[in-house]
Design a protein that fits this description.
This protein is α+β, with helices and mostly antiparallel strands. It has 2 helices and 9 strands; from the N terminus they run E-E-E-H-E-H-E-E-E-E-E. Helix 1 runs parallel beside helix 2.
């Protein structure tokens, strides 16, 4: 995740790269405290198995969402506003399963029945999380390879939504969308996600994350 530099000047910042679950290396925790705002961003990459490197996928997803739950419930000082966002390349197509049990307006996504999808959706629900996608802005595909050739490892290479931002409070989201690859000098099949929230690290402007 990227946070505009001018929003964090003089802030109390903590970065944790040591925490992990299920032997997955893709987890960084970022905490920023300033001007009455306590912002915690959890960056996660749900890796695929590699030769000699086996991931306990359900343990990672469970640990990740439990961490999200603990972060959002962490007490803060009086008159401090708490913001918690989980930004993840989940490598899981949730489709209609992205609906929290309290969702009022269905997103009418594709029907997905994989065990990973069911597990991730349940863990998000267990920890009172809401996926931002489909709630604010017109979210396009987040995985959108320039070529649709079959991958060497046999995995599907079609367009899909497998990247998510999760929060416990949708009222903090002003705008959310994806950014086309041309806007970033990044060689990736994934598009960058962004949100604009009510979090005011600099005491005035909303944050771009």
């Amino acid at each position: 995740a990227l946070v505009r530099n001018e929003l964090v000047a003089g802030a109390k910042i903590r970065v944790d790269k040591s925490t992990t679950f299920g032997d997955c290396e893709g987890l960084i925790l970022l905490s920023i405290v300033q001007n009455g705002s306590d912002l915690e961003i959890i960056h996660a990459y749900h890796e695929w198995d590699r030769p000699g490197f086996k991931i306990d996928h359900k343990a990672f997803l469970t640990g990740l969402l439990n961490k999200f739950g603990r972060s959002k419930n962490r007490p803060v000082k009086k008159n401090v506003n708490k913001y918690t966002y989980l930004c993840m390349d989940a490598n899981v197509r949730l489709g209609q399963l992205q609906e929290n049990s309290t969702t009022e307006i269905p997103r009418d996504g594709e029907l997905v029945t994989s065990s990973w999808a069911k597990h991730l959706a349940q863990e998000i629900d267990n920890n009172d999380g809401f996926i931002v996608h489909g709630w604010a802005g017109q979210i396009g595909f987040t995985f959108d390879p320039e070529t649709t050739k079959k991958r060497v490892d046999g995995r599907p290479n079609g367009r899909s939504i497998i990247d998510y931002i999760v929060t416990d409070n949708l009222d903090t989201i002003i705008e959310a969308s994806v950014v086309e690859r041309a806007a970033f000098d990044i060689d990736s099949d994934h598009k960058a996600l962004f949100i604009r929230s009510t979090c005011r690290l600099n005491g005035g402007k909303q944050s771009d994350t």
